[in-house]
Predict the 3D structure of the following.
Amino acid sequence: MGKKRKLEQADAGEAARQDDAAAPQRPKRTLLGWKEGDPNAAEEKRGGGGGGSVFRNKEKVLVTCSRRINSRYRHLMLNVVSLLPHCKKDNKVESKESKGATLNELVELRNCSYCLFFECRKQKDLYLWMARCPNGPSVKFLVNAVHTMEELKLTGNHLKGSRPILTFSMNFNKDPHWMLLKEMITQIFGTPKDHRKSKPFYDHVFAFSIIDDHIWFRNYQVVNQGGIEETTLVEVGPRFCLNPIKIFGGSFGGPTLYENPFYISPNQIRALEKKKKAGKFAKKVKAKTRRKMHELENPLEPDEFADLWKE
Amino acid sequence: MGGGRKVILLGIQWTGGLKTTRPNLRLKPSIPNFVSGALAGSPLLAPLDRPSIPPTAPASPRPAGASRCRPGLWRQMGGMQRKDFLLAKENPLEEADDDIPDENDSEFESDADSEPEEVLLDEPSKKAIYNREGIIEKLEDICWPDNVQWVHKLTIDHNEEQEVDVNDDIVRELAFYTQALEGTRQAFAKIQSLGVPFFRPPDYYAEMVKTDGHMLKVKGRLLEEKKKIEEAEERKKAREAKKIAKEVQARKLKERSKQKKEEIESVKKWRKQRQQNGFRGGKDEDMDFDFDGEKAFEKSKKRKQGVPLGDRSGGKHGFRGQEKGKMKRERRNSKFGYGGRKGLKKQNTSETTDDFRGFNKGDLFRNKRRKG
C-alpha cells in the first residue's frame, strides 16, 4: 500500500513538474523497463465508460460447489480456480438451495457476472452449472472423465495466471446452442486482458472440442524450444468432458431453451442396470415354469416295451 | 416410432496410461425417429454418422461410468460393441491396450435380450426442447460487442479434417493435441504481429500452477518409470546373454571332444605308421620300451614343482592328501608346540608353583569319606 501511494505521489509531482516545463511526456518506468509509449491505449481504457465503443473485459466468475462433494471433484474445482485468476471462490452451498435464488444472490453479493457451480449428487455424479448471472442463460452439464491436475501422469506446468489461448473446434459454430456455449466458455475461461493477477506471457492453451456431442476440455502447456515451429505441448490438466443437459433462459432457472435429446441421467442408467440384474432370477423362474407347462402339455406316450421284462 | 435404436458408447480409455472413465452412454433414437421428433430439421442431425452397432444388436442400457476408473466394468458391459468398433477400425494399438479379457461378453449378450427399458428411452427425444430463437436472442444478449479486439478473446477456431472416433483414445487425444498446437501457432502469429512478447523469458520466475513439490513428485515418477524400463531391458539382455553363454558352452564341449578324437586318431595313425616302417618281431618290445621310457622322461620333465620325487602318482593323487596331512601337523604344532628346547617349557615358574588346582582333589574326597 505504502509503495502505491508513493508512486502516486511521485506521479503527481512529476505531473506538476511536467506542467511547469510543458515538456514532452516521459515514458513511465515499469518493473520490466520502460513502458512503451502507447497513450492511445491508455486513453481508450480510461474512456471505456464514456465512449462505449471501447471494450474492457470485466467478467468475474464465482466458483463454488455443493455440500457433500467428492474429493476428486473438489480438486477439479480447485484446479479450475487455479486456472482462472479472475474468479472468486466461495464456500460450499447447500445443494437443495441451488434451486432457489440463493446462488444468484451470492453471485450478486460477490460482484460476479458468471458462476461455475459444481454440484455433486450421490457422491458420484458431478453436474456443472455455468450461469451468466443477473439474467443471462445458464447451462447444466454432466461432467465425465474427470482427471485432476494432481495426477502425476500430467507432467506439464505453467505460470499461474497467464492468459490462456482458447481453441475451439469448428463444430462450435454449427448450431446456435453450441455458439452460445462457446460464447459463455470464452467469457468464463478467458482471462481478462490486463487483469491484475494475470501474467503478461502466453504459456498455455485450452482445447475445447466437441466430439460426439460432448465438450472435451484439455489444458496444455506451451513448451518453448527455440521457436514456434519447434514448440511442443505438454498436458497440464485437468481434463474433463462436459455433456450438456439443458440450457435455461434465466440464471439457475427460467425457461428451458435447449434440452439434450440423447441425455439419460446416470440415475436412470443405474436403475436400468439394477433392473437388468434383478431380471436374471425372474427369467430363470419363468423358464422353469415354461418348461413345466411344456411338459404338461406334451406328456410322454406310454412306452410299449415298458413292462416287457416284468412278466 | 419404436423403430430400431442405436446404442452409442462413449468410451474412453486413455492411452497415455490414465484410465479414463466411460463418460456417458448414449441411447439414441434412429434418424427417422429423431426427425419426427421436436428437432425436425435441426442441424443436430449432422453428426449422426458415427460408429454404431449394427441394428440387429438389441438396445440395452449400459452403465455410465459415473464414477471413474471402472474400465473393467464398462468393458464387460460394452465389450461386444467395442469389439465391433475395433474390428471396424482395425487399430492394433488400441487392441494391445486391452488387457482385461472380455470374458463376460457372451453372458451380457444374452442378457441384452430383456428389454424393459424401451419406454424410458423414447422419452427424451420426444420431449426435447430446442428453442432456436430464444438461444440466438440470449447469445446476442451476452455477446461482447462485435468490434472487440482479438486480444481480449484469444480464441482460435480449429477446423479438424475428419470426424474423430471417441472410442479411439489415441486418435482422440491426438485430435485435441493438434487442435491446441495449431491454435498456439496461429495465436503466436497474431500476438507477434501485435508486438507483444509471447514466450516468457527464461529469467522470469513467478508462481506456477503446480507447486515445486508436486513437480518434484512428477519428476520422481518419471525417473522411476525410466528406471523400470531400463531394468526390464537389462533383464532381457541378461536372459539373452545366458542363452548365448549356453551356446558357447556347448560349442566348447564339442570342440574339446573333437580335439580328443583327433588326438586319438593321430596316435593310432602314428602307431600304424611305425608298424609299417618294419620294426617288428623281437625288437618290437624294445622299441615299445624305448618309447615308453622316452615318454616317461618327457613327462618327468613336465613334472610340477613341489611334487616330491617319491610321489608315484606324479603329484596328482598324493598332493591333496599330503596337503591335508600338513595341515594337521601344523595344527598340532600350534597346539602342542614344535621344536626348541623342551626343558625350559617343563620347568616350574612362580605361577605354576602357586597353582594348586591340580592337587588335593583326592584328599578332599578322602576326608569327606572319613567324616561320613
Notes: Residues 207-275 of chain B form one domain. The CA atoms of residues 281 and 287 of chain B lie 10 Å apart. The longest strand of chain B covers residues 5-10. Residues 1-122, 281-300 of chain B have pLDDT under 50 and may be disordered.
